[in-house]
Amino acid sequence: MNQTQTLPTGGTVPRGSPSLQELFEAQRLAEQLPVLDAALHRAEQRLRAERSSEGQELYFMAWILRGTIHQQSSGLDDQAVEEKNAYTLSNSRFWEEYYANVDADRFDWYSTWDTPINWLSLGVSTLGSVIGPFLFANASILMLGCGRSDMSQQMYREGFRNITNVDISSGLLERLRRGFEREMPLMSWRWMNASSMDTEDQSFDVVLEKGTLDSLQDNSELFQAAVRESHRVLRSDGLFISVTDTEKLQQLQSIAPFSCEAFAGHLDSQRRLLLYVCRRRSGLLEHLRSWFKSEL
């Protein structure tokens, strides 16, 4: 089998290498980057003065869009992007800035507990009615990247009260604690990095995330670390539950020993929703490690 492709000059390169057309396209995009960066920066400056909630959201979206373009086009890490006065979704400083400036009203990525979903295999039912049967009342639940969603509050009122909310914005967590700790005394709020969690192995029965992994999708190292950390903190046969709009089944099962069940549906005619319920698989070595820990 011929493993090379012929160039117009008569030379050859290994088959599968970028074509000249692809290289020219990459060069063209690279040349346009400064123009696009400048246009987005001007948009940021105009939006900075907006006081409406929509204007605030657009301002931060422009910030993120510019940072993501820099990261994907130039292979920059979060710190290098920040040096260009831009941010990515995986940068903790972005979220501190974001939550300090946007309205405090709840905001949900994709859906929340009582959102009706048109499931392909189940018909129309709420997100909670699909997740709920996998849980038990006193399950210890880690809400990974809680944000401004009211998912935890709705679950608490449904009887799932042992919930630890974690996020990388300390300002947001303090605001949530002040707002809900009196009504929901069994719920807690902790600062924690999803890719390096400050908690013991096998501490939770359930890790639930909604959009958090999506915010790390462009940073492969952090994404994989967050999945492995979720597996680490789950008890034997614990559940990792992911709500997203992106195919992740193969990724999740290749990064950590999970056995996943997938549910697909639509929020409306334009937006789809995917729910992954992944059970932590524990091998013999892990069972022996747990036994030795208990005997020490």
UniProtKB/TrEMBL annotation:
Source taxon at top rank: Eukaryota
Keywords from the named record: Methyltransferase, Transferase
InterPro entries the record matches: Lys/N-term_MeTrsfase_sf, Methyltransf_11, SAM-dependent_MTases_sf
Keyword Ribosomal protein annotated: no
Pfam families: Methyltransf_11 (PF08241)
Methyltransferase type domain boundaries: 142-241
Family under the similarity heading: Belongs to the methyltransferase superfamily.
Protein name: Methyltransferase type 11 domain-containing protein
